[in-house]
Structure formats: structure tokens, C-alpha cells
Amino acid sequence: MASTPETTPVATYRNYIGGQWTESQSGRTYPITSPASKQTVLGEFQTSTPADALQAVAAAEAALEGWANTPAPARAQVLYRALEIMGRRSDELARTITLEEGKPLADARGEVRRAMNIIEYAAGEGRRMFGYTTPSELPSTVAYTVRRPLGVVAIITPWNFPIAIPAWKMAPALICGNTLIFKPASITPFSAVKLTEVFEEAGLPPGVLNLITGPGGSVGNALVESEAVRGISFTGSTEIGTGIYAEGARRLKKVQCEMGGKNAVILLADADLDKALGGIVQGAFGSTGQRCTATSRVIVEEEVYDSFMEQLVERTGRLKVGDGMAPDTDVSPLSSQSQLDTVLEYIGVGAEEGANLASGGRHLTGGEFDQGYYVEPTIFTDVTPEMRIAQEEIFGPVLTVFKAKDLEEAVQISNSVKFGLSSSVYTRDLPRAYRYINTVEAGMVHVNAPTLGGEVHLPFGGLKASGVGQREQGVEAVDFFSEVITVYIDYADEARTPAPFI
Ligand code: UN1
């Protein structure tokens, strides 16, 4: 008897509003497929509408009083439980990231670890959340500051770190007593559902965290335009972030936007070349370059240019491109057809602009590559600062290489873009390292380390078109997600003459 092929039914996932897993008022869902396997549908997700967004805002408003009045150390207990649950579910969460976003499983595990780190750090803030006291200029008077939540906050996040970025916004927002509407990128709702489940299981009261999935524009606008939303934390493109910031400002909301990058490594002739090569290859091609802190430019002091290039091309050629689930994969697929189209378009632009294609450049096809969105790690040399590939964020595995005669010229090239997120110099020369630190235009500066990453207890963010509003993470996160209230208490038991304030 001929066997019938097994068909696994595709699960449908819902929004989470007011503590209930809820269908969109649109009555519609959309499928999510895997970047390494376009035919594999991971699930159906709600196509949310502005009406769903407003329902989520109402749920967050209703939950605000209770959560804001829960003592911060008690709020922290929920975060500690979430931490414990994430530890238990970390393998499932990492696999979900790899299936949905495409990054290598080892990177996905690192991402989950990072989300756990920020939850742990934010939970600790529950027992700090410092204000300060200071002497008053008046006798019998106490003056101090105290923190209050902003209120209802919208968390709008990208697809490239679908667990860590939401976590590093949510955890500090929650510890400060805010209630949230979480709008993940439309292509990574699965990770968002799982992260929301973690907080539900941790016992977060209904309405404190609300999830709505689906397309960005209309739902995002509804959140930005809602009077009840007092704060917005956004990570994504400079174009969208600029619009959100402008709209938010018009409505006097507190807004934090973490946006694009065009991060450069400067390689000075005295550097440890081997160490620099490792950092540059990882920075440029790790996570398939889909990271706002990716290394997209290298500026090389001319004495070492030839030997650097030879070794860079050789090392890049050894990278294994493949499915993120395979243990030996270095470079996994791009996350979507549109990412693939953009990256291939930029590769075309680089060639047209007269840059020299030193390595890669091809859309990979055939065999397993036909199942996903694969492109070769790509290096352009003879790049000049005015070229588009030197100026615009590509968000893919494309590295541009420049030659400079000395540190000063290298810094000038490094600063010649509209972005200013992360940066790095490789050198053993302390005075030159400090000259670099003091002049480079970037919110995060690395010496002898890749442009990537950051630690959760230190601020994360950029200058210029890379960021606006307060930094994420570190103590700055508590500053962003709270309002500082100044209190004066007059405990004198008689009227003052003259009146205390002039
Ligand atoms: C990292 O460098 O590890 O969107 C994180 C992004 C950044 C996060 C980068 N907000 O890629």
C-alpha cells in the first residue's frame, strides 16, 4: 500500500492582551517561514490592526495602577522567575531564534544568554532604583528625588535579535513599573510569542505585558499616536526611527531610538594582525552582518595593507556558509527575501561605483542554498568615502576596505558617515589608542576588540543618525523608563517668615 505523506498541521499563535491569548480583530493570520527553508512554515501569526493596538493599550492602562504600586523588589521577583524559566527553556528559545531568524545556533544561544543577563541585571535594580537626597537651602526641610514609572510604554523591536532586544527593553521597563505593548518585527513573531510565554509563566499580572504581532506601519502608528502611550523604545532603521521620534516629540512622549550603523575598524600598522583579523572577520560576517554593530568598514594603515588584504581574503574564503542549525556553519542565510534583494542590490551598486570586488559577491544557489537566502561573504577594496557602499547601512555580509596614510586620516574616514554607533581600533600604541578614543564619533568605542556587542550593565547606543534619546541598558535604562520626581518636605512646626521660596 502506498504511504501517504505526513502533513504536520501548522499551529496558529495569538496575540496576548490583558492576560488572554487573543485573536486579531482582523480575523486574519499570516505564515512565517524559515530563512534556511522557505518551504517550512513555522506557524501562523495574527495580522493585527490599529484596533488590536488600541485594545492592547487599554489593557496596559488598566494594569498600570496595580503594577506601578507593586513594590519594585516584588516586581523583581517576577523577573527572577522569568530568568529561571528562560534558563530551563533556553534550548527551545535558541532553536526558535535560529529557525525563525536564521542565525547560527551558537549565536542564538548567546542571544538567549544575553537576554538572561539583562533580566538578571534589571531585577537587581528592584532593590536599588536610586534617587538622591541633598541638603535643602531651608532649615527643617528635606529634599530628595524618587522615581515613578512613565506609564504605558510601547516596545517596537527588530527581527535580528528577536529575543535579546525585546528583553533588554522590557526588563528595565518592567522593573520601573511600566506596563507594555510589545510590537515585534513582522518576520519574527514566533520568538516574541515564546518570550511573552516566559513572562506569563513567571506570573506577570494580566495586562502588564501585551503582545501584538503583524505588519509594522499601521499598528506602530496607532501606538505612537495614542495619547495613553507615554514612552516609546524603538530599535530599527534610521528612517522609521526618525519618524517615530518626530511624532513622539509632537505629542511630548519620551522616545528612545536605536538605529543604524556603518561601523568602522581602524587597523594601525603596529597592531597584532592575527588578533585584528579575527575581530574583523567576526565583526563583518558573524550573524551574516545583520547586526547594527556589524563591522562594515575597515580602514587600514598603508604599511600593512597588502599583507592584511591577503590574509583577510584567505580567512574569509574559509568561512562555511550554510543552515544555522548545522554545527559547522559560520555564515547563515539572510533573514528574508527582501534582505537578500537589498544586499544583492548593494553588491551591484559597489561594482557600478568602481569599487574592486576582492572576494565573494555571489548569490549562492543550488542544493540546500535554493531553500534559503544565501549570499557569499563579500569584500570590496578601493572604496572611497563618497561611494554609497561606504556611506549607507547594508545590513549584510559586505565589508568595504579603505587605505589611510595615518591615524588622523583613518579617523577622518571613520567619521565621514552620518552614523556613529560602534567603532574599533587595533593598535598596541597607547597614545594613538587614546587619540582615537578622544576623536572618533561613535557611542561605543572598542580597542583591540570587534565592533560587536556590549555588556548589559553598560550603556548601549550611538551618536548622530545611530541613536536619539537615552541610551539602552546600564543605569541609563532606568533613567529612560522612569520619571524623576523632586520632593520638598517642610517639617518646621511653625509658619515661616519670610515665605520660604523667593
Ligand atoms: C550586538 O551588537 O550584539 O539591532 C547587539 C542591532 C543592535 C543590537 C546589536 N540593536 O543589531
Description of the molecule:
- By secondary structure, the protein is an alpha/beta fold.
- The chain folds into 2 domains: 48-259 and 466-485, Aldehyde Dehydrogenase, Chain A, domain 1; 263-447, Aldehyde Dehydrogenase, Chain A, domain 2 (3-Layer(aba) Sandwich), CATH 3.40.309.10.
- 37% of the residues lie in helices and 22% in strands.
- It has 15 helices and 22 strands.
- It has helices at 50-68, 72-88, 90-101, 105-125, 164-175, 189-201, 216-225, 238-250, 273-285, 305-317, 337-352, 388-391, 407-414, 430-439, 474-480, and strands at residues 15-17, 20-22, 29-34, 37-46, 133-135, 141-149, 152-156, 179-183, 209-211, 229-235, 254-258, 263-267, 295-301, 356-359, 378-381, 398-404, 419-420, 422-426, 444-447, 463-464, 467-468, 482-490.
- The strands form 6 sheets. The protein has a 7-stranded mixed β-sheet with strand order 14-15-16-13-12-18-19, with helices on both faces.
- Helix 9 links the parallel strand 12 and strand 13 (295-301).
- It is globular and about 80 Å long.
- The relative contact order is 0.13.
- Bound molecules: 2-aminohexanedioic acid.
Major beta sheet summary:
7 strands, mixed
Q: Count the strands?
A: 22
Q: How many helical stretches?
A: 15
Named at the architecture level, the CATH assignment of the largest domain is: 3-Layer(aba) Sandwich
Supply the CATH class of the largest domain. Alpha Beta
What is the straight-line distance between the termini? 96 Å
Question: What is the name of the CATH topology of the largest domain?
Answer: Aldehyde Dehydrogenase, Chain A, domain 1
